[in-house]
Write a structure and sequence with these properties.
single chain, mainly alpha, Cytochrome C Oxidase, Chain A, two-stranded antiparallel sheet, electron transport, cell membrane, transmembrane, cytochrome-c oxidase activity
């Protein structure tokens, strides 16, 4: 071996004999195992019973269709959102149960029910999952799903690369789920607190899991960023100039410029840490000549642009929802573009506000304090523009708009606390307190609210029917109430001096506020059931809630509503020509809403391929082997990756032509189905239009 390891290792099994020394005596892990394995068996049984394996393989697993890839990204993100939420539930309940020296302990814990080591893994997994494997895939999913249609493209610039990005994310998800049962996860926080990540302080495989999960997911995000940028710059429909692009497309562009330039920094930081752990270098070990603050700088040089990597798409969602439900154009479209790119630019100049207390001096602190406050200017421009869009508009408080308004209110609160933390004097007092935790959860709740607004807004475009409105509002109010009861007390606890990452609360006076947080978690649990019930009921009533026109909301404004609900695999029967910023609103005003083109032409499309799945298989094997240091298996998997890529390079049969006659047949079937829906709606309501589309 390159370094001395604590515990067993041999050339064939690597560190896998270490599993024999781990004790799985915690029923929490047992419950998670039963839940994960049981859920997987139910899915396998259902696919087998209904004979859907062939359909799943042909239509989804091997697809390069950007819409299906987007849906799969969102599904993966939602699954991991629930996993991350369960971690949050354990954190909150553990802290409420472990208050004061007389609090009892069970399951091997002195207080509460989680041991300190297990608690450390839980909050590390929670942060890693929520940021990189829940929020990021969901946002990338919507970029894949909506952006190409918004600019009039048939698919992404590189459909194969798009599938590779998805499957790299799935590999990372698989590794983080495997760590729950096979070994353990990092206990050094989601940021990888040095020197805790060094081998001497983390001799088990937890940090290795964390490293390879992030490295592999970063590959997916980086190749996805290349693809999205190329699609926006090179695949726009005729007339779609840069200044006519929808704001969501602009936020997608800004987001992926950040991703393409920042994720390589994280890759290098983790590579250096990997060399420290595997080879015995000393990049981040102070006693070996290294500097662990170098890691902190590298991490946050990525970490704070990453915050805007996930916030900017949320701003894009709001910029689509607010005009639609205000029945007005977005106020000052050009200013929103400038504000978007300004946020992307300033995001690179604020990373050091994460450690004002490092002692770098007043000049450096002042620079980063001012830079942090500057972010508030373009963000404020966005808030005022959304407000001015609603002023004198016909605001409809349907479910997507409720989520958008909730997100904007949270942005005001999160922005105010962010300005407080941008002041070094305040930061000195509140650093490492749960006030900071409440602030960045506030910012991520902005994204969560915008995401759920986007789900309800674009659901009818993707699936052809509306989500149940009544259950959607119940879901919103439960989620909103949960957010208030969890994070308002957390802000207060921060002011009272409670620090983060505690498994035991020494101050009994904090107990009432901790109980309020648990009550808020209970409301979150209820909101999850409301969301799942909404999905089930909506699918059950899909015929009643079917969309009868291409514009599910009747007041939508952009080009994605100029094709069917759901769109065909080629998106548009004929490549659209763009005339205005709000192209669909322009067509509606000029009576040009017919989806039947003047003539049909052949369409060039990419073929499905199994290569990304094979690539993901070898990558997953490599990641698992690298975690457990089974070097012969890692070498075999690396050769598999290289061989698969070479095979793809020599593949020639990767696309096909859809004849004009086939396009006409598909379009005719779509239009007939739309007419049938309209007639059925008239029969049900006695009026023109379905209840879901009457305003």
């Amino acid at each position: 071996m390159f370094v001395d390891l604590q515990g067993p290792w041999n050339w064939f099994w690597g560190r896998l004999p270490l599993l024999l020394q781990l004790h799985y005596n915690n029923p929490v892990i047992g419950f998670a195992f039963v839940l994960a394995v049981g859920g997987g068996l139910v899915v396998v049984a259902a696919l087998t019973y209904f004979k859907l394996w062939g359909w799943l393989w042909r239509e989804w697993l091997t697809t390069v269709d950007h819409k299906k890839i987007g849906v799969m990204y969102i599904i993966v993100g939602l699954v991991m959102l629930f996993r991350g939420f369960f971690d949050a539930l354990m954190i909150r309940t553990q802290q409420a149960a472990a208050v004061g020296p007389d609090s009892p302990g069970i399951l091997g814990a002195t207080h509460g029910y989680l041991t300190p080591y297990h608690m450390d893994q839980v909050f590390t997994a929670h942060g890693t999952i929520m940021i990189l494997l829940a929020v990021t895939p969901m946002l990338v999913g919507f970029m894949n799903l909506i952006m190409p249609i918004q600019i009039g493209a048939r698919d992404m610039a590189y459909p194969f690369l798009n599938a590779v990005g998805l499957w790299m994310t799935i590999v990372a998800v698989g590794l983080v789920m495997a760590s729950l049962f096979i070994g353990d996860f990092s206990h050094a926080g989601w940021v990888g607190l040095t020197p805790l990540t060094q081998l001497a302080h983390s001799p088990s495989v937890g940090v290795d899991y964390w490293i390879w999960v992030i490295q592999i997911s970063s590959i997916g995000t980086t190749v996805g960023a290349v693809n999205l940028i190329a699609t926006i710059l090179k695949m726009r429909a005729p007339g779609m100039t840069l200044m006519r692009m929808p704001i969501f497309t602009w936020t997608t562009l800004g987001t992926n410029i950040i991703g393409l330039t920042s994720f390589p920094v994280l890759t290098i930081a983790l590579l250096l840490l990997t060399l420290d752990r595997y080879v015995g270098t000393h990049f981040f070990t102070a006693d070996g000549g290294g500097n662990f603050m170098m890691y902190t700088n590298l991490f946050w040089i990525w970490g704070h642009p990453e915050v805007y990597f996930v916030v900017l798409p949320a701003f894009g969602f709001l910029s689509e929802i607010v005009p639609t439900f205000s029945e007005k154009p977005l106020f000052n479209h050009n200013a929103m573009i400038v504000a978007t790119m300004a946020i992307a630019g300033v995001s690179w100049a604020v990373w050091l506000h994460h450690f004002f207390i490092m002692g770098q001096g007043p000049v450096v602190n002042t620079f980063f304090s001012i830079a942090t406050m500057l972010v508030g200017i373009p963000t404020g421009v966005k808030v005022f523009n959304w407000a001015f869009t609603m002023i004198k508009g016909r605001v409809r408080l349907e479910t997507p708009m409720l989520w958008a308004l909730g997100s904007i209110l949270l942005l005001i609160g999160g922005g105010a606390t962010g300005m407080m933390l941008a002041i070094p004097a305040i930061n000195y007092v509140s650093h490492n307190s749960v006030f900071v935790v409440a602030h960045f959860h506030n910012m991520f709740l902005i994204i969560a609210f915008a995401l759920f607004g986007a789900v309800s807004f674009w659901w009818p475009k993707v699936f052809g029917f509306h989500l149940d409105e009544k259950l959607g509002k119940i879901f919103f109010w439960l989620f909103w109430s949960g957010s208030v009861f969890v994070f308002v007390p957390m802000y207060a606890l921060g002011f009272l001096g409670m620090t983060r990452r505690l498994d035991y609360i020494a101050h009994p006076g904090w107990w009432p506020l901790l109980l309020l947080e648990v009550f808020g978690i209970g409301l979150y649990v209820a909101s999850i059931f409301a969301f799942l019930l909404q999905i089930v009921v909506s699918i059950r009533d899909r015929k009643k809630n079917a969309v009868v026109t291409s514009d599910a909301w009747q007041t939508s404004r952009n080009l994605e509503w100029a094709t069917h609900c759901p769109p065909p695999f080629y998106n548009f029967a004929a490549t659209p020509v763009v005339h205005s910023i709000d192209e669909w609103a322009w067509r509606r005003e000029h009576g040009l809403t017919s989806l039947k083109p003047d003539h049909y032409a052949d369409i060039h499309m990419p073929k499905n391929t199994m290569v990304p799945i094979v690539l993901a298989f070898f990558t997953g094997v490599f990641g698992f082997a690298a975690v457990w240091r089974v070097w012969w298996l890692a070498g075999f998997a690396l050769l598999g990756v290289i061989g698969t890529l070479i095979f793809r390079m020599f593949q020639k049969d990767i696309d096909y032509i859809v004849p004009a006659s086939e396009v006409e047949r598909i379009e005719t079937a779509y239009l007939e189905k739309m007419d049938d829906r309209a007639h059925a709606s008239i029969h049900q309501t006695g009026e023109h239009g379905s209840p879901a589309t009457q305003h």
